[in-house]
Each structure stands twice: as C-alpha cells, then as structure tokens.
Amino acid sequence: MNPDTLRAALWMGGSIASFTTMAIGGREVAGALDTFEIMLYRSVTGFVVIVAAILLTGRRHEITTRNLPLQVLRNATHFTGQNLWFLAIALAPLAQVFALEFTSPLWVLLLAPLILGEHVRRVQILVAIIGFGGVLLVAQPFAATPSPGLLWAGLAAVAFAITNLFTRRLTRDETVLGIMFWLTALQLLMGLVCAGFDGDIAWPGPTLLPWTFAIGLAGLSAHFCLTNALRLAPASTVMPIDFARLPIIAIVGALLYAEALDPLVLLGGGVILGSAWANLRLARPAALPAST
C-alpha cells in the first residue's frame, strides 16, 4: 500500500472515532441539555482550541472577512443541521441516524447544479435514485411505529450537503484554519442566542461536563482528521473508509443502549453506502489521453 494511502486510512480511523464519540456524547447529555445548549458548549470548546492554535502558530493573517456573508450562510446551515442531528441522536437508533446521514453525498449530487452550477450526468441521478431506495429500507416509513427522529436525521443530511457545497466554494480562496475559525466563532454566537432566548441556559454540571468537552473536541478532530485524509489521498479512496462508521455505530448502539441490529437497517445502509461510493467513482475526472 502506498504510504500516503496508509496514512490517509489512519486519519480516517481518527475521523470515525471522533464521530462515534460525538454521537455517544450527544446521547449522554440529551436528557439534561437541549440541542442549542449542546451546540453552545461544543462551540465554546472549539473556539478556545482554534484561537489557541492561531496564536501559537502565528497564522492570524488567515482570518479574513472577505467572504463573511457566505461564512454566515454556511454556518447557519451547518448549525441547523447539527442541531437536527443531535435531536435525532436522542430520539432514533444510532445506526439509523448514521445511515441517513450517509445520504448527504447524494444530496450534494442533486444540489450541486443549483448551488455551484456543476454538471450532473444521468447515470449519477440513477445512482441517487437507488440510494433513495436504501433510505426507504432504513427509515421504514410504513412501519407501525416509525421514529420521529428519522425525519430530523434526514433533514440534517440535507443541511450537511448544503454546508459541504458552501464549503467547497469557500475553499477556493479560504484556508481550512480560516473556515474553522468562523465555524466556531459564528456558531458560538448562534448557540448563545438560541440557548439563551428563553433566559435559561442549563449548566452541564460535573457529571456531564466531560461529555460536553468531549463533544467539542470530537467535532474539531473529526474535521481535522478528514481534512488531512483528503490531503493525502483522493476522495474516491478516502471516503469509502468512512462507511465503516455504520457497522461500528450499530455495534455501539447494541452494546451501550441495547438497540436491535435490524437487518433492514443494515441492508438499507449498505445500499446507501454503495450508492455514495458509486457517486464518488463517477465523479472522478476522466483520464487524460496519452500524449503523442
């Protein structure tokens, strides 16, 4: 295996561990904190770490306001999606939430022409339709007692897709550190406003404080690990590794929360993951013709 590919795989392992930790933390604090409060404490932790990194590395010049309106729009979308995700984590089985989250690349495929003006081929639309079939297997909309959390998980996936499209536009002239600074700063402000709107912001207390701290660190490390993985290897190589999150979180849900390993959820998740992987393969640029 190419050394860079191996390092990328290790970074993706860190990303998977981070997302899993964030899901467990979200489930643990859900009874005591609402989603706005979770986002507030998550952003406080992230903001402190990012500012410390900026000061220690002397990279303050990377923090600019030239794309501030787009930064605000991106983070409002991400803030909405992350709140919906934490709400879904509290209400629905973890495996189902993660499976629906993996529909985000398919929404990117469908929304890219509208937001970025990118061309989408018919075969890619067919892949998205197949992926939607996997969504039906996971969500089981005709079941006797469908979880309301699945609706929030599906809407969170759409919000994450829009966020990723805005991020792609920002990376044209913004650094990762600059994007991460505005992510933590703006969402800290949004969390403070939304959590304090009713005049009552709950303090996590000594029992839950470690979990809120872990959520903040996991949120940062997930993005950091994923960015480093994509720096070392193509997305078509890196992103399929992320699909290991589904069986891992299914096992975590079964062991920690006695959640059943539903075969239909795993089957539907497999269809979604296969569709997302096919989309990555189809999105690769065609090889250049050999020079004569």
Can you walk through the features of this model?
There is one protein chain. The chain has twelve helices and no strands. α2 packs antiparallel against α8, α2 crosses α9 and α4 packs antiparallel against α11. The protein is globular, with a radius of gyration of 19 Å. With 292 residues, it is mostly helical. Helix content is 77%, strand content 0%.
Percentage beta strand: under 5%
Structural class: mainly alpha
Amino-to-carboxy terminus distance: 31 Å
Q: Determine the number of helices (DSSP H or I, runs of at least 4 residues).
A: 12
What is the 3D form? Answer: globular
Quaternary: single chain
Radius of gyration: 19 Å
Mean pLDDT across residues: 84
Low-confidence stretches: 285-292
Could you outline the blueprint of secondary structure elements for this entry?
Elements: H1 3-29, H2 35-57, H3 68-91, H4 94-101, H5 104-115, H6 122-139, H7 149-170, H8 176-195, H9 205-232, H10 235-242, H11 245-257, H12 263-283
Give a short summary of the structure.
With 292 residues, the protein is mainly α. It is built from twelve helices and no strands. It is 77% helix and 0% strand.
